[in-house]
Design goal:
alpha+beta; H-NOX domain; Arc Repressor Mutant, subunit A; 2 domains; five-stranded mixed sheet; 18 helices
Length: 366
């Protein structure tokens, strides 16, 4: 599975490539009311965090669910960094040893069959609470795990990266009784490398091109000792029902494109694969697409084009990797298809749009 993020949708900005609408079920993050208490337990005054973040002072006192836009969430975690002055605060908040404090999503993960199954559950059901996705890219003997924020207009705050990575590693350790650890951590920033190496018990590559957890593929497929099908039989149907209800509110064409983007890195998905993920029969899916005036092959091409443009505009990913993640068997097939879509090869297209972006930024500064 592989995902990328978009930007600006919560502000109602134009989306010429149709990317954001096909990915995000929710446009806001639902925040647990327990966060304020966790901050206090970590020695941080919630009021200080909110003041630094520029958020309402009574945010954690609300009885109703707390919802924040992506920009507000990023501000919250930047405020946390300022208020705590503790470079390890994200690592501490992400490491929860008390199973009783786990939310349904974390319980769904630790009861999974394997670490890979746990990540797939996290990715699948995160859609219920936030415009965020979890990515796994298998390359050779390694598997890279990344978080993607679908509506982000900027890079996620370091504290947020620390919390997310620490949370995933904590689930892996609980599920395998400490037998799984990353082979390395990749961070875009340079500071506190030794602190991260001590926490994650692995080498840390700083000034990297991405923020990523890297595991051996064998560890990702390691069975969980905490696998509990009986507990999953209780909470799984409820999560699935909520997800089905959320998906039902989206047009079938957007559902199909969104699912295609999830399945592409596993190989070129067929209509049977997409139908199975959407809990439909192939015949029903074909009928609904026909009623919508669309074909499966058309949506496949649209999904590939949208993702290709987004990868090229928003990452430094190698072109060969881009081809792989779009489900092409070889890079030449991707180059040929992209040239037909855009009128130029992907490398030239990326360079041209990068120059245009820099020119716009310079003009805005002046």
């Amino acid at each position: 599975m592989y995902r990328v993020w978009g930007d600006g949708a919560e502000r109602g900005d134009a989306d010429p490539h149709g990317y954001r609408g096909s990915r995000a079920i929710n446009t806001q993050f639902r925040i647990s009311a327990k966060l304020g208490r966790k901050l206090e337990e970590a020695g941080v005054r919630p009021a200080d965090v909110l003041r630094q973040a520029g958020l309402p002072p009574g945010l954690f006192d609300r009885e109703e669910k707390i919802v924040l836009s992506t920009a507000e969430l990023f501000a919250l975690y930047r405020g946390l960094a300022e208020a705590s002055r503790d470079p390890a605060i994200g690592l501490k908040l992400g490491t929860e040893h008390r199973l009783a404090q786990y939310d349904p999503l974390a319980i769904a993960a630790v009861t999974a069959r394997s670490f890979r199954d746990a990540i797939e559950r996290l990715d699948r059901y995160k859609k219920l609470t936030c415009p965020e996705e979890l990515v796994v890219v298998d390359q050779g003997n390694e598997s890279r795990v990344e978080f993607r924020y679908l509506l982000a207009e900027e890079t996620e705050p370091p504290v947020m990266v620390d919390l997310a990575f620490s949370w995933v590693v904590a689930i892996a350790r609980r599920g395998t009784d400490g037998r799984v650890a990353p082979t390395r951590i990749e961070l875009q920033r340079a500071e506190n490398r030794k602190m991260y190496e001590a926490h994650f018990r692995c080498p840390v590559k700083t000034n990297a091109g991405r923020n990523a957890l890297v595991f051996s593929t064998a560890d990702l497929d390691r069975p969980f000792l905490t696998h509990n099908p009986d507990l999953w039989a209780i909470i799984g149907p409820q999560l699935e029902a909520e997800l089905s209800q959320a998906l039902a509110s989206k047009a079938i064409t957007e559902q199909v494109k969104g699912m295609l983007k999830q399945l592409m890195p596993r190989g070129r998905p067929g209509i049977e694969d997409v139908a199975r993920e959407l809990r439909l029969s192939s015949r029903t899916l074909q009928r609904r697409l026909r009623e919508a005036g669309a074909t499966f092959q058309q949506l496949m091409q649209e999904a590939r084009r949208e993702l290709a443009r987004h990868y090229l505009l928003n990452s430094s990913m190698e072109l060969n990797d881009t081809a792989y993640l779009l489900g092409y068997e070889d890079a030449h097939s991707f180059f040929r298809a992209f040239s037909q879509w855009e009128g130029s090869p992907p490398g030239e297209w990326r360079a041209l749009h990068a120059r245009s972006s820099r020119s716009r930024s310079s003009a805005a500064v002046r």
